[in-house]
Amino acid sequence: MPLLKNCDETVKLKNGKTLDERLDIAEKCVTNKLEISNTKSMTKGIYKRLKAMLAWQPDFKLKSKLMLFKPEFKAIAINDDDYGLGEYTEQPVTVKTFNGNHVSMLEDSELAQEINDALWN
Which Gene3D superfamilies does this one have (predicted)? Predict the structure, then answer.
C-alpha cells in the first residue's frame, strides 16, 4: 500500500526550509489509508528519538531484566527481534508481540496483564 498519493507537493519537500515546513508538505500527501490523526507530531517524535538514539553511546550494560512489548504492525521496520536492546543488557531481553499498532495494542487486555505481572510478581 503506497503511502503517498501522486502529489505535486512531494516535489516541494526539497524546498522546505525547516523540518516543520517539510512535515506540513508531507502530511498533505499522506493517503487516508493510515488511521493516524497526528502524523506530523508522530513523525517529529520519531525523528527526535532516532536523532537521540544515534548520538547515544552507552559505556555500560543494564543488569536488570528488560521486557519489550511491541505491536504486530510496526511504524518502522527493524530487523532485530529485540530492536537491538540485547547489546545493552547482561540478561536476554524478553520480547512479546501484541495485536495492533503502537496505539491500538494499548487496548489489549493481555498487554495489561503482562505489565501487571511484570510489575507486581
Answer: alpha/beta hydrolase
Q: Which domain holds residue 107?
A: 66-120
Regarding pTM above 0.90, the answer is no
Give the residues across from 41 on adjacent strands: none
Q: Is residue 3 a part of any domain in this protein?
A: no
Please name the residues in contact with 85: beta carbons below 8 A apart, sequence gap of 6 or more: 66, 68, 93
Q: How many domains does the chain have?
A: 2
Q: How far is CA 32 from CA 1, 21, 78, 101, in A?
A: 11, 20, 24, 16
Instruction: Name the 3-class secondary structure at 79.
Output: coil
Are 47 and 76 contained in the same domain?
Answer: no
Q: Report CA-CA distances (Å) from 114 to 44, 63, 64, 74.
A: 29, 21, 17, 20
pLDDT higher than 80, residue 24:
no
